[in-house]
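Inverse folding, one chain.
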C-alpha cells in the first residue's frame, strides 16, 4: 500500500484529502505545519508528499527546500495560488508537480500513479548508449549529464526530459507530448514543461555565443539539436 503525507494547515481540506486517499487505497496521514510534516517524514517516510504553500511558520516553499536536502521523495504542491511565479518557485524548490485547488481526487490519484511509474523507470533504466551533442553528454544508464567533461546537477524530472528530447534529436516534441512521455500525464499544465526547459537551458547552455541546443519552435514545442 502506497503511503501519502498531506501537509495542509486547513483542517477541513487536510481531513478530506486524507479520507479521500484512504478510500482510494492509500495509507494517508496529515500534518498541519511544515515542521510537523518534516518530522513525520523523517520518522515514517511516505512514498509521496503533498504540500500546501500557505502554511504557518515555514511556508511550503521552504518546506520543500528542507525536504530536498535529505529526501528524494516525489513532492506534489496543492495550492490555491495559480500564478506562474509561484509555480516556478515551487518547482525550483524541488517540487515534482503542481496542482491548483480545488483538486478532484481522480486527478490527484492519477498524478500519484504517474509519479510512481516515473520513479520505477528511473530506478530501472533501459540499456541506452551515451548520447552526445557536441560538448554535452547524456548517459541514460548512469543517470548523468556532463558538459565539457564536468557533471551537471539535474533533477530526476530534468534528466527524464533531457533524455526524451535527446532520443528524438532534431524532432519537435509538443508540450503535450512531453507531458505524456515524461510526466505520463494525459493532459496537464503546460507550464510544467516550460519551467523545466528553462531550468535545463540554464544548466546545459552558456552565453558564449554558440547556437542554442535546446530550441523552442514557436507554436509547436521543443527540440534538442546537435
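Residues assigned per position:
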Amino acid at each position: 500500500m502506497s503511503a501519502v503525507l498531506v501537509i495542509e494547515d486547513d483542517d477541513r481540506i487536510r481531513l478530506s484529502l486524507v479520507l479521500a486517499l484512504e478510500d482510494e487505497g492509500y495509507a494517508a496521514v496529515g500534518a498541519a505545519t511544515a515542521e510537523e510534516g518534516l518530522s513525520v517524514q523523517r520518522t515514517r517516510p511516505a512514498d509521496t508528499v503533498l504540500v500546501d504553500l500557505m502554511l504557518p511558520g515555514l511556508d511550503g516553499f521552504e518546506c520543500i527546500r528542507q525536504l530536498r536536502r535529505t529526501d528524494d521523495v516525489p513532492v506534489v504542491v496543492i495550492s490555491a495560488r495559480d500564478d506562474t511565479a509561484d509555480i516556478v518557485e515551487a518547482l525550483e524548490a524541488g517540487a515534482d508537480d503542481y496542482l491548483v485547488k480545488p483538486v478532484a481526487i481522480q486527478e490527484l490519484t492519477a498524478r500519484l500513479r504517474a509519479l510512481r511509474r516515473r520513479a520505477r523507470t528511473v530506478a530501472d533504466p533501459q540499456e541506452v548508449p551515451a548520447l552526445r551533442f557536441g560538448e554535452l553528454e547524456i548517459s541514460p544508464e548512469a543517470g548523468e549529464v556532463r558538459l565539457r567533461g564536468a557533471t551537471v546537477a539535474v533533477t530526476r524530472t530534468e534528466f527524464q526530459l533531457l533524455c526524451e528530447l535527446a532520443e528524438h534529436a532534431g524532432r519537435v516534441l509538443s508540450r503535450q507530448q512531453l507531458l505524456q512521455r515524461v510526466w505520463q500525464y494525459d493532459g496537464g499544465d503546460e507550464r510544467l514543461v516550460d519551467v523545466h526547459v528553462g531550468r535545463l537551458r540554464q544548466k546545459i547552455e552558456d552565453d558564449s555565443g554558440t547556437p542554442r541546443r535546446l530550441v523552442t519552435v514557436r507554436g509547436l514545442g521543443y527540440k534538442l539539436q546537435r
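Residues 65 and 216 are 29 Å apart (CA to CA). Helices lie at 11-23, 34-43, 60-68, 84-93, 105-123, 156-167, 175-183, 191-204.
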